[in-house]
Design goal:
This protein is α/β, with parallel strands linked by helices. The protein contains 14 helices and 20 strands. It has one domain: pyruvate-formate lyase- activating enzyme, CATH 3.80.30.30.
Length: about 350
């Protein structure tokens, strides 16, 4: 799985390291004093080689920075934010979704896993004590929360911690079905497993090496039956010939396998990218055409489909979700107040209003 494993000498919390040693019993773990020693092993012959070879190098280190942060999608004031917070236990992803924005934003191409869980939990405790309302903390913004959990097993410590918290709720975001490490834990209803979904055709052709749609939905049912909250993300929703039928079928499939009231919230995000991503995608995945449509540049410096197309796509998803579960909290990532007025018939006053709407089933 990994060509080389590196351990930063600064690591003193060996919880994650011990799980790595147990899984990779016969593989050497190379001690280093800086990330520069790791980066020497990245193949930089091309952008494609840099990204792909980086995924094959595992670097165990300490996270240095602010532990609890706002979601990096937080945008200029003209866009409505959902008040999601993040912690980074990992950086980079072993999957190869062609549209992935990490290809163009990560400064370090290697697979990093942060081991200073003791410091992270201290920061979470301090933050929890400062809050008066429910607050969602997600680990899946710059990594997949579950893809490698059978190796690192960090989530069991997170689930146990959040089960006892006062205001914090954990969101584990994934395109995998790697849930076995969760099934024997008591989440106390304070962990939400968030499955990213797309039509089976998109999963097969574009979300490379991920679990199939069927596998994700089966995993969602299983964790729900084991006491976890479940939410779904259609993000990114992609415009292509036949998209209406494909996304209608997707939501019909969800509706046939889950009852009204079982899904905690539903997030929709239409394909967006930063400048430079399309060029990287064309280099890494020749023949993929997802960025050949018309895009417009928003105030947050990200490209989106033109508003009439986005409105049509949102209308289809929201109307289907209302038919399935009229009281289900559904929302879009990084859209303006006018979007809420048009599609949801109300406009949140601020990020806390959005958060209250989304957490009403917690």
């Amino acid at each position: 799985m990994f060509d080389k494993i590196f351990l930063d000498r600064e690591v003193t919390d060996f919880t994650t390291l011990n799980h790595v040693k147990e899984y990779f019993k016969d593989q050497e773990i190379i001690k280093v004093s800086s990330r520069d020693e790791v980066l020497k092993h990245v193949n930089n012959d091309s952008m494609k080689d840099t990204i792909q070879s980086g995924k094959k190098l595992l670097y165990l280190n300490n996270y240095k920075g602010q532990f609890v942060k706002f979601c990096p999608a937080k945008s200029p004031e003209c866009y409505m934010c959902c008040n999601l917070h993040t912690i980074n236990l990992q950086s980079n992803c072993v999957f190869n979704c062609t549209y992935c924005i990490l290809q163009s934003v990560l400064s370090n191409p290697v697979m990093q896993v942060h081991c200073n869980l003791d410091e992270i939990f201290n920061a979470l405790t301090e933050y929890d004590n400062s809050l008066i309302e429910k607050t969602r903390i997600c680990t899946g913004e710059i990594a997949d929360s579950l893809a490698l959990d059978h190796i690192f097993q960090q989530n069991k410590y997170l689930v146990e911690f959040f089960a006892k918290s006062k205001h914090l709720y954990l969101e584990l975001k994934t395109k995998s079905n790697n849930i076995d490490t969760l099934l024997n834990l008591d989440s106390n209803g304070r962990t939400v497993v968030s499955f990213s979904l797309n039509p089976a055709e998109i999963v097969r052709k574009i979300e490379l090496q991920t679990a199939s749609l069927e596998e994700r939905l089966k995993a969602a049912r299983k964790v729900l039956d084991h006491g976890y909250k479940v939410c779904f993300n259609i993000d990114p929703m992609i415009y292509f010939e036949g998209w209406q039928e494909a996304y209608t079928e997707l939501i019909d499939t969800i509706s046939s396998q889950f009852k009204a009231g079982e899904i905690t919230w539903f997030h929709v995000g239409i394909l967006r990218s930063n400048p430079g991503l399309a060029k990287i995608v064309r280099q890494r995945f020749p023949g993929h055409t997802i960025f050949d449509e018309e895009f417009v540049l928003g105030m947050d410096k990200k490209y989106r489909y033109p508003k009439p197309i986005r409105d049509e796509m949102y209308h289809l998803v929201y109307s289907k979700l209302r038919d399935f579960d009229e009281d289900l909290a559904s929302y879009a990532c990084v859209e303006k107040a006018s979007h809420w007025k048009k599609h949801k018939n109300f406009v949140p006053r601020d990020v806390h209003d959005v958060n209250r709407y989304l957490t009403k089933r917690l």
